[in-house]
Amino acid sequence: MKKLLVEYEDSGKKLTTFLTSKYPKLNVNSVYKALRKKDVKLNGKRINDNVELTYGDELEVYIVDSEFEGTKKEINIPKVYEDENILVVNKPQDIEVEGENSITSYLKKQYSYIEPCHRIDRNTTGLVIFAKNEDALNQIIEMFKSQSIEKHYIACCYGIPKSNATINGYLFKDRKKSLVFISKEPKKGYTKITTSYKLIKENKEKNISLLDVTLHTGKTHQIRAHLAFAGLPLLGDGKYGSYEINKRFKIYKQALCSYSLTFNVEEGNLAYLNGTTIALKKIPFEDIID
């Protein structure tokens, strides 16, 4: 990620022209891709147009640093668990699960068959399950649909909840804006969602907390949007969080990690996983809380 200030001599330049003049090795297609995903902020607001810049504008461009230098970043994908049917990896930030230069494209160079069973956001870290054969893929996808895999996330939030809670709501996905909206009451086009959280750690002086979050329904941006709606926005979340709070803590990537997965499966080729919990060894974001 780069933060830039538009100087007087650059006033009037288009965004793409400005960035490629500052970073000659940056591929202009990477800039357009970032715009499509709204990974560019102008004066604190996400944009998706190749706008004309003005003197004093502040830019935040969420492209991995290696692309600014025209080099390919060495991908390090830690393997957390593996057997003959599945692989579980710890996905770092700034990389997609699928697509060009993704975890999947990287792993396909190592395995004759490997497919992701689910996805997490590019800037969410943590556990992702890959299937090593078609039977495992179909079974795990079905397990996610039936909520037979219990998913826990660790979230670092601004605000401290008074107690542990299970919250319900209704979510609408606006594909054009690449945003979701939450409502307390059912509405047309909205889907019911349920999210639980438990307080792990708090810092009253900073007014931040570390939560263990359980997804009972797995919808786009559910944790980020639902917690923000409940008054507990994720630190570093540019879409549903607070720009001023993120700036104060100097955290610009969402503090959310897929921490553990528990399998509840009594039939099929993966029955041996029943009751198994795969988790990261270290709880993330404790350094922020302390």
What's a quick, concise take on this entry?
The chain has 290 residues and is α+β, with helices and mostly antiparallel strands.
Number of helices: 8
Q: Give the termini separation.
A: 25 Å
Helix percentage range: 10-25%
Order of helices and strands: EHHEEEHEEHEEHEEEEEHHEEH
* Residue runs with pLDDT of under 50 for 5 or more positions: none
CATH architecture of the domain at 153-258, by name, is 2-Layer Sandwich
Shape: globular
CATH fold annotation of the domain at 153-258: Pseudouridine synthase
Beta content comes to 25-35%
CATH class of the domain at 153-258: Alpha Beta
Mean pLDDT over all positions = 92
Q: Kindly state the number of beta strands.
A: 15
Main β-sheet description? 11 strands, mixed
> Can you say what the CATH homologous superfamily of the domain at 153-258 is?
Pseudouridine synthase
Class derived from helix and strand content: alpha+beta
- Radius of gyration, whole Å: 20 Å
